[in-house]
């Protein structure tokens, strides 16, 4: 500081003078005055510290203004993990994005425009869900998969009643988040049956008694147990006289030919399971949501439970969910179904467009996000030197890659084909930044 002269400090422009710069007008409109002022104050600070010339303050502000009011940035997912939790799981379809945009203002989410009276909240989304899963007598939507479980556990087993659950299904779903803790937080008690690797129908039958509130089957969605194992399908537990809840996790509403081991709602319901819970933003490819599907009376009971109000979804979710269910194939489903030869030819084109040192390679993608554990999806991509990964993340249009075997891999299965051009531009910029 001592080296900065008083004259230099006096030449630092006043806040109002900088804010009056015509170049800041668009930012004042999109970001708001307070946010722009923060940037001005920071630039003035740098000028006073002698880091920039006093005359450069306005230029510095123009260069460092954030482009949008929210700090979350779009990112290209080249990890090959289709549902990447840290990248927001399922990317929404264009139809779902449009629906969110349309619902963002005032909307008829809970109003019947024909009568002017109150309408059922999210009627369109619920009707779409019911139409997609005709085996469900009732449907309801809450904030996420965890909320769906909390609602079921609270309504069926709070107050010290028991949830009978296999020991091998006491799972942690990620980020230190454990299902048993979640369930016990409702006041229910867990009655564990079987061993880590094996459980039989008799184990459940022996545990069910007057204190039982429900039997819970949890799909181990992020690990596989192999070897000497056995588990009981939820449909074999429906004769024990208590409600059976199947948490299928990933949100497949019907069987998927590429994921034969992944449970789906229709099959569970057809097997007589009274309640299925699932996430909306995994293999369904929609917004974050928790789906409750099943017996009409049971779902009605859950929907009317006081806790349901605290778990309800907002209008944006309802809009995106309906568009996902009724609209064109969501991106996750397209990525899952992508043909490996088509991925290979895209990889060749992307590598050629980038030039040295990019090389097209074969690789393996995965579903991720708590779905289809252990399933490898044949894929193709582009290999770069490992050090590129950081430069790609730091770019103006960030790309998240996978680093494996000492190289940076851009897996194209998780990149929509329409974004290949954007990927090439981002990679070229990252390579130039490193040079
Ligand atoms: C993902 C998952 C959950 C949690 O769902 P969220 O939507 O993340 O709250 C619960 N159970 C299983 C089996 C899951 O795979």
UniProtKB/TrEMBL annotation:
The keyword DNA damage does not apply. It is an enzyme of class 2 (transferase). Keywords: Cytoplasm, Protein biosynthesis, Pyridoxal phosphate, Selenium, Transferase. SUPFAM superfamilies: PLP-dependent transferases. Its EC number is 2.9.1.1. It catalyses: L-seryl-tRNA(Sec) + selenophosphate + H(+) = L-selenocysteinyl-tRNA(Sec) + phosphate. Pathway: Aminoacyl-tRNA biosynthesis; selenocysteinyl-tRNA(Sec) biosynthesis; selenocysteinyl-tRNA(Sec) from L-seryl-tRNA(Sec) (bacterial route): step 1/1. It comes from the Bacteria. It is found in: Cytoplasm. Residues 9-48 form the L-seryl-tRNA selenium transferase N-terminal domain. InterPro entries: PyrdxlP-dep_Trfase, PyrdxlP-dep_Trfase_major, SelA-like, SelA_trans, SelA_trans_N_dom. The modification N6-(pyridoxal phosphate)lysine is found at residue 282. Its cofactor is pyridoxal 5'-phosphate. GO terms for molecular function: L-seryl-tRNA(Sec) selenium transferase activity. Belongs to the SelA family. Converts seryl-tRNA(Sec) to selenocysteinyl-tRNA(Sec) required for selenoprotein biosynthesis. This is L-seryl-tRNA(Sec) selenium transferase. It comes from Actinomycetospora lemnae.
């Amino acid at each position: 500081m001592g080296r900065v002269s008083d004259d230099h400090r006096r030449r630092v422009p006043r806040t109002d003078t900088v804010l009056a710069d015509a170049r800041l007008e668009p930012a004042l409109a999109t970001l708001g005055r307070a946010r722009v002022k923060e940037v001005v104050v920071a630039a003035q600070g740098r000028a006073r510290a002698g880091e920039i010339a006093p005359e450069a303050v306005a230029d510095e502000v123009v260069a460092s203004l954030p482009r949008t009011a929210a700090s979350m940035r779009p990112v290209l997912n080249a990890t090959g993990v289709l549902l990447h939790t840290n990248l927001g799981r399922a990317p929404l379809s264009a139809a779902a994005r449009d629906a969110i945009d349309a619902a963002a203002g005032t909307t008829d989410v809970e109003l019947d425009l024909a009568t002017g009276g109150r309408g059922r909240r999210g009627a369109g989304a619920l009707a779409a869900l019911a139409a997609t899963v005709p085996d469900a007598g009732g449907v309801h939507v809450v904030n996420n998969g965890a909320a769906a479980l909390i609602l079921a556990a609270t309504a069926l087993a709070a107050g010290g009643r028991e949830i009978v659950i296999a020991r091998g299904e006491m799972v942690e779903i990620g980020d230190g988040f454990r299902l048993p803790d979640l369930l016990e937080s409702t006041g229910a008690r867990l009655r564990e049956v079987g061993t880590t690797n094996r459980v039989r129908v008799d184990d459940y039958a022996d545990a069910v008694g007057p204190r039982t509130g429900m039997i819970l089957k949890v799909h181990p969605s992020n690990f596989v147990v192999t070897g000497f194992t056995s588990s009981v399908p939820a449909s074999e537990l429906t004769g024990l006289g208590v409600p059976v809840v199947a948490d299928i996790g990933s949100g497949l509403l019907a069987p998927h030919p590429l994921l034969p081991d992944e449970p789906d709602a229709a099959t569970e319901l057809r097997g007589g399971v009274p309640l299925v819970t699932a996430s909306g933003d995994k293999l369904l490819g929609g917004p974050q949501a928790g789906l409750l599907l099943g017996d009409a009376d049971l779902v009605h009971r859950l929907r009317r439970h006081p806790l349901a109000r605290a778990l309800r979804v907002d209008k944006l979710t309802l809009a995106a969910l309906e568009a996902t269910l009724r609209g064109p194939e969501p991106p996750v489903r397209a990525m899952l179904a992508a043909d490996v030869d088509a991925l290979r030819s895209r990889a060749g084109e992307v590598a050629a467009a980038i030039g040295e040192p990019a090389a097209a390679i074969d690789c393996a993608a995965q579903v991720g996000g708590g779905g289809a554990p252990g399933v490898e999806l044949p894929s193709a991509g582009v290999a770069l030197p490992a050090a590129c990964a950081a430069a790609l993340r730091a770019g103006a249009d960030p790309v998240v890659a996978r680093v494996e075997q000492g190289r940076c891999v851009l897996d194209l299965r998780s990149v929509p084909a329409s974004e290949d051009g954007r990927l090439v531009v981002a990679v070229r910029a990252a390579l130039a930044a490193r040079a």
